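hey can u check if this looks right to u? its 361 residues, i copy pasted from the old doc so theres a chance i mangled smth
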Amino acid sequence: MAIPVDEPGLQALVYGGAVLGGGGGGSLAAGLQSMRETLRVGMPRIVPLTALDDEAVIATLSVVGDPGTFAGFASGAGPFRRAVSLFESFSAHPVEGYIASEVGPLAVTYGLRDSAHTGVPVVDAPANGRAHPLFVMGSLGLHLRPRRMAEVVAVGGVPGTPKYLELALRANVMTAARILRERAARMRAPLAVVRNPLTVAVVRHHAAVGALGYAQRVGYVLLEELPRGPSAVLSNLGHLMGGSVLVTGRVSAVRVSGRGGFSVGMVGVRGKDGSDLEIPVCNEFMAVLRGRRSVAAFPDLVALFDLSTGLPLGSPEVRTNQRVAVFSVPKSRLLLGSPMEDRRLLRPIERLFRRRLVETA
């Protein structure tokens, strides 16, 4: 099914990405900026996976870094253009399409400007149908193949300064993830990354096929209901997504800071009913905790909606005393990439929190 790529269609895609980002995947402002830059270049192409032959090669586009450093970063800006150009010469495989590593408000625009410029399509099969904090979670199962060398190009920083980086490497995805995270943390700047050229047949087995189209449908509902207020937005998103509001109330505490290339910490919410919830943050909102019990836990989607605007919040945007609704969608109702089935990938995050994020039923 074709995805409309006119301004209303791309706007819906970005707003739907903001819901499915669960606090991560870039900011809504950056996603809208990237959309506008794309349309100034021309009309991009978003095609279904079925539009390409099984042996066609697709590469993944992603950004690595602490979301708190993403201000002003848009996927159409110089770093991605340079990374795509370098990847074309570095990779031994001619790339016939690009996929986003995840779904978030900026992430859904990865590759669109380059598509408008070159005609190479973005494919509706992102590596994951929600945002996630770890590089390997968007690596299409390659973390299970440690002897497989992945091709990776990363670009970031300000050209002409000591903190500018262009990096090309061949390594397994675990090694590549560690190197890129360390570099992004040291530079305190996000890195635009092109990686993992794989055939359509492999991508089909591991990706969240159709997740861009789903994000766009979510965005259409949000934008249609927004004039009616937050209650209408949340009610109709609940019907579409199979989600629900866990609590409404005020943000009682925000303890989030940059650590090792991540935004890590905790958000507290005091419900109108007097209940206290804790929401661990590792770029995304990772869980909803009531005492020692997990009400929701990654890869369940947890989104915080600002009740003054009706819009989902990115994790760096949460402020003490904000009126919010905590909205959750169980993982069974999401389009997810295959690494979301591997609970071992959560262990580094659980070590950051010093507690286990217990999966919900």
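The chain has a mean pLDDT of 92.
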